Amino acid sequence: MRHISKSIAFLFLLALGSARALHAIEAASFPDSAAVFASSQNRHTFGRAFLVGSQSDAPGYRAYSYLLLASNQRGNETVLAAYLALDEIGLVQAAGAEPQDLNIVYLPLREAPPAKPSAAWLMAHFDSERARSILASVGAGGRQTATLVSYTAPLPSKSPVDPNQLLVEDVPAGSDALVSSLDKQLSPSSPAADVRGDRRLTGRAFLLAGKPEDLGYGLYSYVLFGEPLNAGNRALYRAVLDAFFHIEEVRRFEAEDQPRTMLNVTYLPLRDLPSGDADIDWFLDHYDFARAQIILARLMDRPVGPYIVSYSAPLFSAASVETGRLLVEDLSGVAPDLAFLWFNEFAAQAGRAQYWDKPALRTFMLNLRNQIAVAAEAFEEVRAANSNLRSAFATRIKIQE
Fold it and tell me: Could you tell me which CATH number the domain at 201-358 has?
């Protein structure tokens, strides 16, 4: 009876991974047939919305695209028919997608459309003035075809547009052409999102008390413990530090003439410089909790962690922080034997140009893997299954990079 109860508990804990997480795993193995959301047409990465009159763009999306028509251009109606065939952004979100994982695709209109507008109605009420303003903001005025403009922030932007985060291309008539153009928009997995065709390399370094960060790196990351060392967090802190020391030293990359702009320096705050024989416990005992808490206090309320935090500038001396481009990996509640997986996730994400953009699929896999590991602490059957699944899940995660 006890054996049966443990088995039921194991199945229940696995069920907590939710159907959504299981769908994500299926999608990794069978991308042509599995679907997390309702429609399979647009691969669930974008949805359409109308930008009416002086209405502002909705905040919080991963990317912003604008379908802009050319005046009196033949084929506009076909392009608009393809646009109407896309899922509405509200339906995509209602099916479970988060805004930070989506590209919202706007069509500027002079007035609000009816419930089911036709392509002809949209063409007759298209906001040409706003379209010209958007095109001018990206230096693409005077185009003679339907155009798709994609960027990582709403347009026109108050700050200069970063050409490395911008996509402007013609949209020929036809539904396949529009979907193909949207598939090319900037995303964490696309070659266009990489830095100069390469990925940043992650290297470790110490941030000693009273010393500022070194300047010139492409990305700045920090291993931050939000609460002082105690019996409850010591095992997790040790695991995080062990994973940290499996990262190559940043100075090794610099010795091979790797430019700092292509490096993600990952700092561990310390009160003292370690000796050559310092072990993990020494680093725990000399960790600079005060400096870590000063950094975290600028970013969140009542932090616990541990966290891996990444930003494009030194955080300790930054006058302000653009939270939309702040990557925070929260390892609180993560089983200690999973710390190395989270560091793999962190290093892969930090290597991308859009380092702040988390792929939901891989997050689901890590979360489910974590639940199995936590269950393993309580039930022998789960512990055995956890051992068997470790390599399988690690393989799946690598496939997604």
Answer: 3.40.30
